[in-house]
Amino acid sequence: MRKVYREISEIAGNVITVLATGVGNGELATVTAPGFGSLAQVIRIMGDHVSLQVFSGTRGIPTDAEVRFLNEQLRTPYADALLGRVFDGGGRPRDGRPALDGDLIPIVTPPVNPAKRIIPRNMIRTGIPMIDIFNSLVESQKLPIFSVAGEPYNPLLARIALNAEVDIIVLGGMGLKFDDYLYFRDTLEGEGALSRSVLYVHTAADSVVECLLVPDTCLAVAEQFALEGKRVLVLLTDMSNFADALKEVAITMEQIPSTRGYPGDLYSQLAARYEKAVDFEGAGSVTVLAVTTMPGDDVTHPIPDNTGYITEGQFYLRNGRIEPFGSLSRLKQQVNARTRDDHRTIMNTMIQLYAAYKESLEKQSMGFRMSAWDHKLLKYGALFERRLMDLSVNIPLEEALDLGWQILADCFEPQETGIQTSLCERFMPSSSDEELAAACALDAPAVSPAG
Amino acid sequence: MSARSGRVIGVNGNLVTVEFDETVSQNEVAYVTQGDVRLVAEVLRVRGHYADIQVFESTAGVQAGDRVEFTGELLSVELGPGLLAQVFDGLQNPLNVIAEEHGFFLPRGQQVDALRRDTTWEFTPKATPGDRVRAGDTLGVVTEGMFEHRIMVPFATEGVVTVAEVASDGACTVTDRVAALEGPGGARHEVRMMQTWPVRRPIRCYAERLMPTDQLVTKQRILDTFFPVAKGGTFCIPGPFGAGKTVLQQLTSRHADVDIVIVAACGERAGEVVETLREFPVLTDPRTGRSLMERTVIICNTSSMPVAAREASVYTAVTIAEYYRQMGLQVLLLADSTSRWAQALREMSGRLEEIPGEEAFPAYLESVIAAFYERAGCVRLHDGSTGSVTIGGTVSPAGGDFEEPVTQSTLKVVGAFHGLSQRRADARRYPAIDPLDSWSKYPSLVPEHDLKMARQVLTKGHEVEEMMKVVEEEGTSMADFIVYLKAEYLDAVYLQQDAFDPVDGATSGDRQRHVFAQMAQVLAAPVDFPDKNAARGFFQSLTQTTRDWNTTAMDDEQFEALQRRLSDMLCEVTGDA
After folding, report:
1. A269 phi/psi in degrees, rounded to 5
2. Which residues of A touch B271 (CB under 8 A)?
3. Whole-prediction pTM value?
4. Which end of chain B is more exposed for a tag (fewer CB within 10 A), N or C?
5. Where does chain B hold its CATH 1.10.1140.10 domain(s)?
6. Does residue B286 register a pLDDT over 90?
């Protein structure tokens, strides 16, 4: 049954209100007028007043535009032929190739039954020691990268995508700069990964409402691939734009805002997306990595704050490095017991000592005299930052662990590390590396005897 | 008798406005029907001939004109044998049964019986005809796992009634009639094994409420020694994300010294529930030697499941907890996280266009939170036995700021506050409970005198640490520096605990008393050193040896040897003084 109406009673922001009956919540409609055409979705019904959000914006809509209800929910084509393709937020091809013929799948799917999930068990190796040793990425994890504008979060995302052993990469761009879109496309293509990728890119120039569709579309497609047994990595950049689009629509709808103008259901909205990350019992998995730019580098801003409560940890990207403090992978304990016996110990000890280094550094900057212990810590911190934290370091986990022991041995006596005696005996190298010692002498202050 | 009904006239998210013809009652359950899909809803507000109802599922596709049926019943749960080891959603649908029928996803409009109708239980009568009984009295028992599950006089029964009939020994299903009761006017009531009870109404079939005094041992040293919880008490764990709230709750759910644990995963990550769900069946409860799952009920309404059902889930959980308390059992309810529940209230309040309070939370937030925690308690039942419900809720304050409304409302009503600190979490000092800010009103398992000294050392140590940031190590007196090192030592080997070490992960009450006595010796010892490096070196070695001791089982021969070595080390440095 098709229903056509021509009486728009209200236009505000991206939302129009039509007098109509027999319409379902969430139903799709087309809005057409001379020189105008767009899809729209029902977001509120009150009697015969039906409010719709118009995907391409309301600019130019006349009050007698034709609103045709389609009696269906939002869907997107799904086929193996998606791989290698690029679409815009509304699902239209962006790569100049013809639209896709495939089964249409709904982009909003019901939640997964927790009883059918399994405990994640596979580590995704990235070659980045700050991730592999300290905060291992795990298949089916959902992790945001907290960052400020200007940090190299997109290159980091791309690098993880290329290193990660997954079957399919789904990239969702929200409010992406056109250059960034080209960067992703060219990087994936250059490394031969485009053929196992599908991109949904909403650029900053496109309509705000279409931004809202990108995560859902990406995750629906990813979920479908996962149900067919594929291991899928979904990259979303940038979720802050998605949250801002939610805010824009909520305010247009005159909803009571909670914190800083964001709608009260921001947590639930974000959770509905992130929770699509899943390891299916007897099928594939969906892993989600999403960039969240923090306005003003403020982690208590509602977007990063709500995100942190939803995701299984977070990576802080600051000054081009993944910060050891605050960064956390909640699932690392699932995998790092089975890598190597010293993995957890190295992970904890090195961070504890690094925290102590930061304190010494603070004392030094205040002009205090450094004790012998402070000097040891300063040497350690400098080595740690240069040899392990630098984002350009690309080595396998085992090599990184050995390097960790080497750095500890170069700076401390075994009992100063607080590591169990048995592990020290097994793993700690006895003599220090000459080259390393020479290298650190350059940028660490000279070690003076007891002070 | 025709069912009362109405028609949908408005849809706004999960709030549906219904026009009705006859009557509706506040908070009664209604169904929005679309073909054969029936969406559960609850009446929240009535205005003239319009009722606002909150739908517990997605309202996609709901149209103006859809039929709404009112049931006249309040939102209720089924209580009876077969609850233990189950995983329910917020409305008590068993997730395993849904998984068998529908696979990976949770379809809309599915209502499944919470208790299996086909399982039989061996009923043993305990009452005889002619007995005068009250609501909550035992009529018979069945064996549910390791517990004697009481079949009780329905909680809704008023006054004293007479037992007219009791079934004899035999296998029954939950819907089988096991007894009949006769009221004052001669009215007969049939009693089945299963009864239903409205979740928002506390079960109060006990003689009196008692002061919670027995300690609930969680095997986390910092909790049991410094910030203890009593059986029947309440506690909250607020903390910013990443500080370890959920890990702490999972540890508590494993090791807590109680009969039954109810885990309410309320609006949090599905992955965390899955860990409990998959691991508990294969973990053994050291108290009983049986699977941990046999003493656990999981109510799981994770963040991507419908928001309105999240609000209901904590009530479902506490009602089940109260039900087992009626059997004289010690029950622990862990709610993770009460902030998500408060947010669900906020979302609904916003849709109802109520005037918002602080941070857009509704004005009644405080009273709702207080009423929830008040359902905890230690009670003496009519038969003289005691039971308890202990409630522990995590709070996820926005921005990690404890000044926000949910944390503040919770702090007013709980008996212990386990505040998690970002600073400690960053320094990987787990459990990241702040030893200076947290508090508890319940008694500890170690001597008060030692505890007081330990707290003083921690406080003083912190002061010295802060002072050293200004006057540096050199400007600090040796005595102060030693206090600082002692505080750091206590922190490193006692407050911190390695959750993943099989021995260190769970420290029994006995061991805590034993180890803490040793700690008290160290803290009280008049140690002296020639210089600060020597002092630091000594405490570093002492820390390492104590860590080795912490990871050695008490019945291991090394245990005593290590303790001797610790005492010897201490003797050496006190000799000089």
Report:
1. -65, -45
2. 117, 119-120, 140, 312, 330-331
3. 0.89
4. N
5. 448-575
6. no
